[in-house]
Write a structure and sequence with these properties.
The chain is of the alpha+beta class.
């Protein structure tokens, strides 16, 4: 409690006590004293409430700033230790893969599908297969292999996003978002 609020409460109490000395003859003076005591008490209460609200607001701002700083520190730490690649998936237009992509698109609206990468050989050259929900949906493009092959063993998460567009029929396209440890 602030000193000014305490002083107002003490003054209100004194006015109230002194007002009793006017009874029973000075009813007007008694009512005036009680009125002044009530006003002083209300002003003291109002000041105390404003001070408490200001302190709570300050604490809330400090807590929000602390939470923001912690989130920023986590983000910086993540960026320092992890990398992210967005890789278009090639070979998705084969019929069987289009059926798999269509099924996954219907089940999840094409967003946030669990995936994984697996190294392999394709026509005698190194390649990387892309799986969505344990179904082969295609390969990493040859142009992206130089970035992808070195990190396949350090992949933490693969999330597949499927897009659908129409060109006389529905055609599904996929992209893999790869999070890996640096």
């Amino acid at each position: 409690m602030k000193k000014s609020s305490i002083a107002l409460f003490v003054a209100a109490t004194l006015f109230l006590l002194c007002s009793f000395t006017f009874l029973p003859d000075g009813i007007g003076e008694f009512a005036s004293g009680v009125a002044v005591a009530v006003v002083l008490a209300l002003v003291g209460f109002s000041k105390e409430k404003k001070a408490r609200n200001a302190a709570e607001a300050r604490l809330k701002q400090e807590e929000e700033a602390r939470a923001q700083a912690e989130a920023e520190a986590r983000r910086r730490e993540f960026e320092a230790t992890h990398g992210v690649l967005s890789l278009p998936v090639s070979g998705v237009t084969f019929d069987s893969r289009q059926r798999v992509l269509a099924k996954l698109y219907r089940e999840s609206d094409g967003i946030g599908i669990d995936g994984r990468l697996e190294t392999c050989e394709y026509e005698g050259a190194p390649a990387v297969r892309v799986f969505a929900e344990d179904e082969l949906i295609g390969y990493v493009r040859k142009s992206d292999l130089s970035q992808t092959l070195p990190i396949v063993d350090r992949v933490d998460d693969v999330t597949i996003t499927i897009d659908c567009f129409e060109d006389n029929e529905k055609i599904y396209n996929a992209e893999a978002r790869v999070v890996y440890t640096k």
